[in-house]
Each structure stands twice: as structure tokens, then as C-alpha cells.
Amino acid sequence: MAAEKTLDNLFLDTLKDIYYAEKQILKTLPKMARAAQSEEGKASFLQHRDETQGQIERIEQVFELLGKPARGKTCEAIQGIIAEGEEIMDEYKGSVALDAGLISSAQAVEHYEIARYGTLIEWAGQLGMDEAVELLQQNLAEEEATDQKLTELARASANQKAAKSA
Ligand SMILES: [Fe+2]
Ligand SMILES: [Fe+2]
Questions:
Q1: One Pfam family for this entry, by name (predicted)?
Q2: Dist. CA 48 → ligand 2 center (Å)
Q3: Ligand 1 mean position, distance from CA 143 (Å)
Q4: Total domain count for the chain?
Q5: pLDDT tens sequence across 33-90
Q6: 60 with 70: CB under 8 angstroms?
């Protein structure tokens, strides 16, 4: 019954959503690293892949705090964002605009994650789950730093390169 659902349910469902999303992202980042033309782009995707592994472990700790099994729930939003990224990899392969496109896809992923973690942190706080707040804040800080780094990469090279005619 919908009437019986509370913030606990929302929190658990959203945790499952981001858990699924992070696992999809973990699989996608190596593909993006392979696709990227610049060394900095490759390195940044691989570094975030390693961070993502740690983020998945933190989410598993939050499931543990809840006394629930770590289980993902299909997230169509992240599937769509990743599918768009794959489209860019295909359609811009070999072009000067590829890295700018990859960065834009990666930033769409980061912003999705930032939205989810922002909400989860607020809800964990409301539910009095201080340890969960701390774990989720660590993930959020990594997503924000990654987003910032991608902006810098785009400004420092990828966008100018993309603007030039091949
Ligand atoms: Fe993440
Ligand atoms: Fe991320």
C-alpha cells in the first residue's frame, strides 16, 4: 500500500538506484578511457573508475548499516545517459570533437550522481543515519571533484581541439 510508504522506503529504493548506476558506470569508464584520444582524458576516466570501485564499497556499507542486502534496482536514467555516451563514441569516432563529446557524456553521468547523492545525504540526515551521511558525503565529494576536473579538461584542450576543422 502506497499509504504505508515512508522516507525509509524512498531512501532504500534510491540507494538501490545509485548502486545499480555505479555498477553500470564502473563498466563504462574503461570503454570511455579506451575511446578517449588525449592521455589526460584516458587517465581521468581510469582514475574515476578506481574511485567508482571504492564508491560501490561505501554504498555496500550503507546497505549493511540498514541491515539490508546490497541489491541494485534497474535505473533507466543512467542507462539512457550511458547509451547517449555510446552514441557519441560511435558517431564521433576519429573526429576532433570526440573528446569534447566524451567529456560532455561523463559530466551528464556526474550530474546524475551528484543529484542522487545530494538527496540521499539529506534523507540519511533526516533518518538520523550519521554514518551513512558520512559515507555518502565521501562519494559526493569525489563526484564533484570529477565534474570539476572534467570542466578543466574541456576548457584546457578538448573544446578548442573540437572547434578546429579537421
Ligand atoms: Fe560514482
Ligand atoms: Fe562519478
A1: DUF892
A2: 7
A3: 6
A4: 1
A5: 999 999 999 999 999 999 999 999 999 999 999 999 999 999 999 999 999 999 999 9
A6: yes
